[in-house]
Amino acid sequence: MTGDVYPVPAEIAENALLNNEQYLEMYNKSVEDPDGFWGEHGKRIDWIKPYKTVKNTSYDYHNVSIKWFEDGTLNVAANCIDRHLAERGDQPAIIWEGDEPDQSKTITYKQLSEAVNRFANVLLANGVKKGDRVTVYMPMIPEAAYAMLACARIGAVHSVVFGGFSPDSLAGRIEDCSSRFVITADEGVRGGRTVPLKENTDRAIEKCGNVDKVFVVKRTGGNINMTEGRDLWYHEEIAKVSADCPPAEMNAEDPLFILYTSGSTGQPKGVMHTSGGYLVYASMTHQYVFDYHPGEVYWCTADVGWVTGHSYILYGPLANGATTLMFEGVPTYPTAGRFWEVCDKHNVNIFYTAPTAIRALMGAGDEHVTNTSRKSLRILGSVGEPINPEAWMWYHNVVGEQRCPIVDTWWQTETGGILITPLPGATDLKPGSATRPFFGIQPAIVDAEGNFQEGATEGNLVITDSWPGQMRTVYGDHERFVQTYFATYKGLYFTGDGCRRDEDGYYWITGRVDDVINVSGHRMGTAEVESALVAHPDVSEAAVVGYPHDVKGQGIYAYVTLMEGLEPSEELKKKLVKHVRAEIGPIASPDLIQFAPGLPKTRSGKIMRRILRKIAEDSFENLGDTSTLADPTVVGDLIDNRQNRA
Ligand code: ATP
Ligand code: MG
């Protein structure tokens, strides 16, 4: 079960930053001598006062404490902007592509500097101080980046809340970190529809109170209410202040941001990241994982509301002086060819997206891709979920025309940056495997009791020692941090993910540990069954969960979304069961299949299996927290058409 191998293409190898030998040498040094390794690579960013201490971390259950570069000082915004001005002031820092294909603009590093300095001065003028939490509830417009960097410039802590969240979710997140400031826009625009951001903010503040100032960016000019004394127009305020705001000197361990996890498994956690280690790790991973070369155009399609947007739209690329593309819209508007048209329009070299988008576009038909040139593309990336080999092959063959390596990057909000990933010039690829650890990362696989499993094996993925980008705490609740990540296996960081390691030492994420099913004593990752289903030409998406089964202990319940235009039928069900039996074996045969026009997903596009599990168990009265669902209406249809009725 090691799968096919795709070696590094010759054209990539020629110019790559690292080859396999160099990777191995650096990796070994990074784990044998973390102080030496990170002491050297910490210098990739500019420090105001250089650090003397590099690593000071403890995974001891009774004393979990994580500090990196703790006696150094720096400013993150100055690292992302000021230090590039002399050499690349006129180079595009951000290319913004609007929701409509005729809208785009370019912001150079000089222009970014002016915008961020002004915004920082606006915040200061309105009482925002070092350490204050500022909630950013914005559409994907350049001002979202200005807002985050302005916070970083003055040492305020941003908490970005995805613009698709409801007033309730926003209120919860404002309250959790007692944030007295909100930055928002009148309305957002996505896929041709407007999102009432300011109205949602008003409704959120009615619930949670205690917000002193709301800064409002005008995006659409739509009708909104402005509350006298509380709400301020961004464009009016920036005109009143100077374009010079000296960066605050911050300690490496001062908080940079709080970000709530996407809520796939339950109540979101306020993940806290700090300044120095985070920036070193985000910038280093961005450079090596994407093999970034100066001048290249890099596009990560995530929203800044997710950690991927923080580390790989903003902080990593900008710290590296890169050109980063920011996209306001959705992959299917106005057509399913939008991503590839944007790649051609802006000559994108590196493209980073999520399996959910790849599967959706795969279902829409190849012609949307093949109509475009994509000749600028060099590297493709994937993040967010296991990418099933079928989707990987399509991405590789159709989008990348077999010439672009795919970096399948495994990481979490908690990890700050990518932990397990191929490097384009160093790693032979296997479709569906995140391959090998990045520098400084020591993954291990343990069984349910926490015993280390050697060699080719399967079990629970843990990390045995700290890296600079690791989260420091759950905001305001260090005990929850310890209990969530360090209590299951004492002395180890528990990721919550299941994982397989093959004979070549490659890692294969099999999904959440909670999602492992046990059929007649055989343990199976749901991802494996899903991959088999999606490999069938009629299937566009699939989600598999276990449900109580009298004979087998657990039965396999599969929710299947068909390709556009196909009709569900009993005959097709039989075909799919046969197909899975052939792909994996009889043990993996779905017991029940439900055709579902839509699956419940978080707003970052991840399938929320705990809801599917409840419906499969025929106990759907209490579905738990569904506030992070993208489209709550799909749940009703799933319940109505459930297959396991008492
Ligand atoms: P919550 O922690 O609130 O349940 P979440 O885990 O979905 O939400 P994120 O931090 O956004 O929040 O997602 C991290 C998780 O996403 C990982 O633990 C893993 O399960 C999955 N994941 C991310 N990238 C990959 C990848 N390349 N391959 C497999 N799984 C991935
Ligand atoms: Mg998680």
TrEMBL record:
Q: Where is the AMP-binding enzyme C-terminal domain?
A: 528-606
Binding-site list for Mg(2+): 534, 536, 539
Q: Where is the Acetyl-coenzyme A synthetase N-terminal domain?
A: 23-80
- EC number(s) given by UniProt: 6.2.1.1
- Keyword annotations of the record: Acetylation, ATP-binding, Ligase, Magnesium, Metal-binding, Nucleotide-binding
Name the Gene Ontology molecular function terms of this record: acetate-CoA ligase activity
Q: What is this protein called?
A: Acetyl-coenzyme A synthetase
Species of origin: Pseudovibrio brasiliensis
